[in-house]
Amino acid sequence: MKEICFKKDNIYISVRSIIAKAIIAPVFFLLLFSNKSFSQGSKDSVVLNDSHFHLTNYVQEGTDIHKFLEIMGNKVGRVALFGIPLQQMWNYNNSGNFAPTYYLASDDPLYYYSFTDAFIAMAYKSLTKEEQARFDPMITGFNPADMYATDHIKRVLKTFPGVFTGIGEFSIHKEFVSSKVAGPVATLNNPALDRILDFCAESGLLVILHNDINMPFPKSGQENWDIEQIKALFARHRNTPIIWAHCGVGRIVRPVKDQMAMLDKALANPQAGNIYIDISWTEVAKYVTETPEATANTAAVINKYPDRFLMGTDEVAPSDQASYLKILDMYKPLFEKLTPEAKQKLLKGNYERLFDAARIKVRAWEKAHVNDPKKTPPPTPSSGIEKN
Ligand SMILES: [Zn+2]
Questions:
Q1: Candidate from 72-76, 293-297, 345-349 with smallest mean pLDDT
Q2: pTM here?
Q3: What is the mean pLDDT of residues 214-228?
Q4: Among the ranges 194-198, 231-235, 261-265, which has the highest mean pLDDT value?
Q5: What domain range is 14 assigned to?
Q6: 14 lies in the same domain as 111
Q7: In a domain, 26, yes or no
Q8: Domain count of the chain?
Q9: Is 195 domain-assigned?
Q10: CATH of the domain at 50
Q11: CA of 306 to the centre of ligand 1 (A)
C-alpha cells in the first residue's frame, strides 16, 4: 500500500498511522475490559474457589482451558486444576469399534498416563500471567504403587518450574477403579506412598488423596481394614498437608456408621492439624442433603472446624457454567446451616490459605533444586539403574 502523507506545521503525518491508531485504541480498550480480565469488581462476585476440578477425562480429552475460563466467568475465582492420571484402554479385540471413554464402559484395564502432567502444564502456560494466577495445577501422572513415583514428581517440578502447587487427585482405594488398574494394586501401607508423602512434606506440595472409607457393599459385621490403614497413614505423615477427597465416600461407598462423630474426633486431635476434607462431587452432596439430620450433622462439624473443609466441584470437562456449578444448588440446604465464617472459609478462604502457602513453599523448593546439577547427582551404578 502506497503511503499517503500530508504536511501540518512542518510535520509529515502518515494517514496510515492515523488509521492504525484509530483501530488500535478501541481494541486496546476492549482488551483491557474484556470478560477475561479479572478486576477487583470481578473478584467481589466470586462465589467459589474450586479445590477439585478435572480438565480432562479418562481418555485424556476435555475442555479447552480458554473455554473453561469463560465457563468460570466471574463466579469462580481460582481452581485446582488436574487431568486424570488413568487412561482407559481401547482394546479392539474386546469392544470393536466402540471406543470407551469411561472406566465403567469396558472390562479392559486402566493404565497410568504420565503425559497428563505435561498436557496440564502446557495448557497453563498458554494463559496470560493474570489468567495463570487463577489456577493451581496439580501433578497426577504417577503410579502410587511405584517406588519411582517420587522421581517422576520431582522431574515434573524441574521440567515445569513455576507451574505446579500440589499432587492429586490420585487414588489408592477407589470403588471399581483400583481393581482395573494394570499392574500391582496401590495400597495405603506401600513404602512407595510413604516416599511420595515424605517428599510432599519436604517440597510443600499440597496433596489431594482419594481413598474410599470402606469397600463397596460390605457385609454386615465385615471388618473395615481400610479405615484403620488410612488413620495409620495420616499418623505417619503429620507434616504433609493432605486434603482427603470426598471424606472417603463414593458412588456406592456410603458414609460409615457415625461418620460425622468419627470425623469430629479425628479433627479434634491436635496432631492431625494437617488433614483437610473436601466435600466435592455431586454424589457426596446427595449423601449430605439426603435427610435434614444428615445435613445438620455435617453443618455442625463444619461449623466446629471451619478451617478444615474445602468445596470443590469434581466436575470432569464441563461444557457450560450451569452443569459445572450444579453442586452449589445441591448444597444450598447445607449452606443455610453454616455460620457466615464457616461458609466463607468452605467456599473460598481455606482454598486461598492452603494453596497460597503451598505455592510459596514449592517455588522455594524449585529455586533450590532446579538447574543445580550438584544437588541432583546422576544415578550411580549402585542405585541399580542400568545404562541400557
Ligand atoms: Zn475427582
A1: 293-297
A2: 0.84
A3: 66
A4: 194-198
A5: 1-33
A6: no
A7: yes
A8: 2
A9: yes
A10: 3.20.20.140
A11: 22
> 55 C-alpha to center of ligand 1: Å?
10
User: How far apart are the CA of 80 and the centre of ligand 1, in A?
Assistant: 11
Whole-number Å distance, alpha carbon 210 to ligand 1 midpoint, is: 8
Output the CA 377–ligand 1 centroid distance in Å.
36
Give distance in angstroms: CA of 86 to centre of ligand 1.
12
Please tell me the distance between residue 235's alpha carbon and the centre of ligand 1 in angstroms. Answer: 24
Do 76 and 134 lie in a common domain? Answer: yes
> Are both 177 and 56 inside the same structural domain?
yes
362 CA to centre of ligand 1 in angstroms: 23
308 and 253 housed in the same domain? yes
- Rounded to 5°, the CA angle 202-272-206 comes to 35
272 vs 207: which has the higher pLDDT = 207
Among 22-26, 41-45, 135-139, 211-215, where is mean pLDDT lowest?
A: 22-26
- Distance between CA atoms of 94 and 96, rounded to whole angstroms? 6
How does residue 344 score in pLDDT terms, banded at 50, 70 and 90? Answer: very high
Is residue 55 domain-shared with residue 184, that is, in the same domain? yes
Residue 161 burial (CB count, 10 A): 16
- Tell which wins on pLDDT, 125 or 41: 125
User: 3-state DSSP helix/strand/coil percent for the chain, to nearest 5?
Assistant: 45, 15, 40
Same-domain status, 22 and 149: no
How many Å lie between the centroid of ligand 1 and the Cα of residue 211?
11
Q: For residue 53, report the distance from its CA to the centre of ligand 1, in Å.
A: 7
Query: Would you say the C-alpha torsion 153, 156, 158, 164 has a positive or negative sign?
Result: negative
- What pLDDT, on a 0 to 100 scale, did the predictor assign at position 371? 74
Tell whether 153 is covered by a domain.
yes
The candidate with the shortest Cα–Cα distance to 211, out of 278, 257, 128, is: 278
388 falls within a domain: no
Q: How far apart are CA 34 and CA 39, in angstroms?
A: 10
One domain, residues 20 and 140: no
Domain co-membership, 242 together with 322: yes
Q: Annotate 270-286 with DSSP letters as a single string.
A: GGGTTEEEE--SHHHHH
Cβ-contact 366, 158 below 8 angstroms: yes
pLDDT, tens digit, 9 for 90 and up, residues 63-118: 999 999 999 999 999 999 999 999 999 999 999 999 999 888 898 999 999 999 99
Distance 99 CA to ligand 1 centre (A): 22
